Amino acid sequence: MNGAVNLLVVSLLLLLLEYSGSSELGRGEIGSFRSGLTGDLVANGPSDFFKLLGCSEEFRESVWQQRPLLLRGAMKCEGGDLFSLKTLYDACPTFAAGHVTESGSDNGGVGGSTWKFRPLNPNQLKGEPLQKSHVEDAVKARPPSTISFNTAGSLFQNVGELCLSAIRGLRYPVNVNLYITPQVTEEEADTCGKIVPLHTDRQDVVVFQTKGKKRWRVYPKPAVKRGVDPCSRGKAGDVLERGEVSGAGCLDCVLEEGDVLYVPMGWAHETATPYLEGGGGKAAESTPPVSVHLTLGIDTVVWGLTYAHLRWGVLSYSGLDYKLDMSGVEDEAYWETMHALPFGFLSRDDEEIADDLLELIKKLEPKRKKRKMPSKAKAVKVVGIFREHCDELLKVQEAM
């Protein structure tokens, strides 16, 4: 095996554990959402939801990595909340490491000041656990701040169960982040709206609104900007200006408890927390209502499960030059390279994937000579390596 491909596979398969099986499909109904940005899907919990989504031909063919989708009331969980502020309180004291946005900081993306966080637990570096009082102080703080927990599936059991349901239903590696934001007074609405600036992500995400309300604006992918990661716009000092996104095809909605929103990788989005009626200072005098949502990222880019990674792997395995001058690549072709390899719920066979890759290489490099093209046999071989890589990742995540 070529050393470069071997290194890719070995480096991403260090944590091999036992596969733990799959869950039964419960009750649920799925409706048509071929046209428009909203649809119908009613599930009786995470396992139902991802089984229904993964089995939907319409989601695979007309939604996945093509457009956002809002599903009203799709996750009305029976027997308790998916996650609430009480869930976090009940977990305290805990060594789970959360963060909070800096109160009063400019998080609007001006002058490179985009994402500013500090530890939610002020005594974290002293090795002391997070206390309920730390959470209460952050929720009551003014100007309002957002509490966040990355990799929440490894911190909270019910979030871990959500991850497991997604893995079993979609058959891709996933991760969940948790966000808690106070709903604010009308006077504070502008400040709150700046907490999360306009940005893009490198994951396809499924957002579960578990408590309160959150406003989302989702815009089609902005034009690829040279020298900036298109999947990380509005981050790390980059500013994604509103003029760079189109209002055409924009989804503007307020998520309420039980609603689910799918946002494709690379689509720009921003959030704000709707204000409380009545204004005044009442929200600061006691614990205000909060918005709680879970963002589940489907990590195909992070784990090297895209056509861009496959192109590199096949060309390296074949001993061919894999360098690519991106200056001549059209946006459409770039986003094709970022498409997820159709494993899991997308379920295409290795030969089809290899054929697609060879056509994509020709599209990206029309001047590449025929003798510099990899053979289909080698392409199929490397697709199999990537599929094995995906399967082993799932074993690791299912056993966590």
Total domain modules: 2
The chain-level structural class is alpha+beta
Instruction: Describe the sheet with the most strands.
Output: 9 strands, mixed
What name does CATH use for the topology of the largest domain? Jelly Rolls
| CATH superfamily membership of the largest domain | Cupin
Measured by DSSP, the beta-strand proportion falls in: 15-25%
What is the H-and-E element order? HEEEHHEHEEHEHEHEEEEEEHEHHHH
> Briefly, what CATH class of the largest domain?
Mainly Beta
Give the termini separation: 30 Å
CATH architecture of the largest domain: Sandwich
Describe the structure.
There is one protein chain. By secondary structure, the chain is α+β, with helices and mostly antiparallel strands. The protein contains 12 helices and 15 strands. The protein has helices spanning 3-11, 46-55, 57-63, 85-91, 132-140, 157-170, 189-193, 282-285, 307-317, 331-337, 350-364, 376-399; strands spanning 28-30, 38-39, 41-43, 69-71, 99-101, 117-119, 147-149, 174-182, 196-199, 204-211, 214-219, 251-255, 260-263, 268-272, 290-298. Helix 1 (3-11) crosses helix 9 (307-317) and helix 9 crosses helix 12 (376-399). Residues 1-35, 103-113 and 279-285 have low confidence and may be disordered.
